[in-house]
Please model this.
Amino acid sequence: MIEAGKYQVLKVARLVDFGAYLTDGSSDVLLPLRFMPAGLEVDQEIEVFVYHDSDNRLISTTQNPNGIVGEIVLLPVVETTQQGAFMDWGLMKDLFVPKSQQVARMQKGSAYLVMIYVDEQTGRVAGTEKFHHHLSNEGLSVKELEPVRMTIWQKTDIGYKVIINHRHTGVLHFNEAFREYEYGEQFTGF
Model:
């Protein structure tokens, strides 16, 4: 099944003047001509990222977004409206963060940590600042001394509160931090 907000390996079903239709065997999605690699042929497999275009149709791209569904990433706001904010996530179409999913009204030009998710009502990929309930330290998926992806979330009196692998929380104590870290900065730790 072709799903929005994820990378998928799909097969070229047919080539058209404006791109290629890719298939998973049951449904098709367009890969526009501007994103097609040279020499792409029918029956060839290609990895693409799938999302919704401005007309709410699924579309694919070979561009790499700055995050996928389930990830918490720092993104800049490029526009705000009464309905919400639009964030640059590295694709032609910006990521929408509804007003109801903002902690405080987002400001154009500022960057915020958001979790990318699929909205249950619309089926579209969106962002939320209200991701706290998605983070849990029950049933840890990491082991001691295992490399992890850390994102700086907040600075506290004892160190930095971090998001670990987009799933857990932890603290990077000041005596274990070898430099100052910025909000939203991502790095590998243990």
The CA atoms of residues 39 and 123 lie 33 Å apart. The mean pLDDT is 94. The first strand starts at residue 6 and ends at 16.
